[in-house]
Amino acid sequence: MSEDAIHVADFLKANPDFLIKNPGVLAFVRLPEQSSGNVASLQDRQLQTMREKVKALEHRIADMSNAAVENQAILDKLLQLSRHLLATRSDQQLPDALVNKIKTEFSVPMVRLALWGKSDVPESDRSQIDAIKRLYCGFADQSPAPALFQAEDVHPRSVVIIPLRVGANPDSFGVLGLGSPDKDRFAPTLETDFLNTLAELACAALSRLQS
């Protein structure tokens, strides 16, 4: 770096607002572009940087809009499920009503419901299900209820296991399972807010059978 360049650099360091107070100088400041190696003015570089930031914001807004649409669709389906369960007056029809509505509204290929005393779920599975605080969402080979989907022609690769409880009772009275042959449908990284709401609806509805 030449002596003149050093003086210029020292001046700009001592006067960081110089270019702000004298914007016309920017047109004469040339910087190399990283991508092409060409020389561009500082104004051009700043303009390109702003364009890139605007484009990134546009993509982020688009992603947020898509997520909002998807979330609204899920809320509408949960509302439809709630209405359907409330409209089911017969307690004996509740299990089938819940299972069939989950299959149709949420396009879940495998939905299994087991109520203790009315199913052949092994005691070992029941103990593991009781140990789940809220629900299990992940790969089928790590499921706490491996026997739940044994009757299916095609075994699931990802599952959701929902213990059914009355209020804060730690003991379950049954289990609701969702399964898919797609290993990513219910992957461990899936956000579970929707599934937790579904679990609360199922527990609230089926707790009528425990009275």
Describe this protein with a few key phrases.
211 residues, alpha+beta, Beta-Lactamase, four-stranded antiparallel sheet, 6 helices, 6 strands, elongated
Task: Explain what you see.
The chain is built from 6 helices and 6 strands, in the order ααββααβαβββα. The protein has helices at residues 3-14, 18-21, 42-87, 94-106, 123-130, 193-206; strands at 30-32, 39-41, 110-115, 136-139, 158-164, 174-180. Helices cover 46% and strands 14% of the residues. Strand 1 and strand 2 (39-41) form a beta hairpin.
Question: What's the quick description here?
Answer:
The protein has 211 residues and is of the alpha+beta class.
Rg, alpha carbons: 30 Å
What percent of residues adopt helix (DSSP H or I)? 40-55%
What portion of the residues fall into strands of 2 or more residues? Answer: 5-15%
Major beta sheet, strand line-up: 3-6-5-4
Overall tally of domains: 2
CATH topology value of the largest domain:
Beta-Lactamase
What are the low-pLDDT stretches, counting only 5+ consecutive residues below 50?
none
Give the overall form.
Answer: elongated
Q: Give the CATH H-level superfamily of the largest domain.
A: GAF domain
Average of per-residue pLDDT values: 84
Q: DSSP helix count?
A: 6
The end-to-end span amounts to: 86 Å
The CATH class of the largest domain is Alpha Beta
Helical/strand content category: alpha+beta
Question: Sheet with the most strands?
Answer: 4 strands, antiparallel
SSE pattern = HHEEHHEHEEEH
Tell me the CATH architecture of the largest domain: 2-Layer Sandwich
